Amino acid sequence: MSAVDKYVQILADNRAGKGTGIYSVCSAQATVLEASMLQAKKDESILLIESTSNQVDQFGGYTGMKPADFVAYVHGIAAKVGYDKENILLGGDHLGPNAWQAENAEPAMAKALELIAAYVKAGYQKIHLDASMFCADDAGDRHQPLADEIVASRAAAMAKVAEETHAAFCAGQPKPVYIIGTEVPIPGGAQEEEETVTPTTPVDAIKTIEVTKAAFEAEGLSDAWNRVYGVVVQPGVEFGDDQVFHYDREAAKGLSDEIMKQDRFVYEAHSTDYQSETGLSKLVEDHYCILKVGPWLTFGYREALFALAMIEEEMLAPKGIETSKLREVIDEVMIAEPKYWKKYYPGDAVVQAYKRKYSFSDRSRYYWPNEKIQAAVAKLVSNLKETPISLSLLSQYMPNQYNAVSEGTIANEVEAIIINRTQDVIGIYARACKMAK
Questions:
Q1: Could you tell me how far CA 436 lies from the centroid of its own chain?
Q2: Distance (Å, whole) CA 126 – CA 391
Q3: Is there a domain that residue 33 lies in?
Q4: Where in the sequence is the domain holding 70, given as residue range(s)?
Q5: CA distances for 436 relative to 24, 129, 185, 411, angstroms
Q6: 209-223: per-residue pLDDT in tens?
Q7: Could you tell me if 34 and 80 lie in one domain?
Q8: Beta-strand relationship, 228-233 and 266-269
């Protein structure tokens, strides 16, 4: 059974009331991907990994990777950890004219169609069609959503290219499966303090499905429409710099009930980061069963490295041994190159300094590939390899990992501790989706 078939079965089981779901790892960070694969390997499950339209595109995106590069990168990590690449389902998130909103619709959509073709040709099989954003010459109130009919027409045009590309280059592989719709907030977390997050209305969710179905049929894409399995909605979960809006089952009940009236459909929930395990389980049970997680994964990785840097200071600085100064190095690099955080972190210098380190939106995730930061990480790892990590300090700063070492689950080794801390987050999702063994 292919990864696509297993994915479809998980969604069908969810609709049958089995409480199954699937989490989507939205990260290009190598340790996060390694930890995710080790979790999936332990669980004997498939693993859904997604890249976003601004992260990976035909020009390289902000990671410098084109779709084929990202596939090779992911498969390389799978080979390293001994995880079968055939169990990896690769997805493209928010694929559409997102990165080219400043251009007029015609050139922006031309690039979006190239983007879709590049993703499908590279072997991505789960495609989120999202043309919900205004292009420069689109008419309408920018404070209101772009007209459903325009969004649907553009989504259908992208699906047509996906189908044609698959037939030309990937005929021996399972056909693409699709997600439609978009969440109300910007991807990656809210930027401003909010009082509450209102779930999508059932009427709006069903209209998205109906209008998009009509657009697919107008393009002669009835077969492709039968492989649209999910719609992105806002179930009322979100996070900001230091706030989390937790799932309210009652507030989203009408939306949850409505999807069961639709053939085969489930919901995909974005920005599920930092929810409780109980909340995530309820989301899955209520048919928001594709759970996107991104910043929380690199936040957990960052927490691991910060904790280890503090252990390093406690252990080695009093002995006169040069330490990595990892936390200081990261902040210096972020201040010198503010483009990935400046507009997302409002406030005075003190507030911004705090957010650079500890914001839930975790803009520091964009900086890990930086050479200075990589050198500091290497120094940290080297130092903690040469001097065994104090168990009492591990208990102080990383109690979960202290317990894992005590139980014999992991060795008292720096790389194993980093992976294990990152897996703390992934394990929450695996259990909530009933994927954990």
A1: 19
A2: 44
A3: yes
A4: 3-293
A5: 14, 29, 30, 22
A6: 999 999 999 999 999
A7: yes
A8: parallel
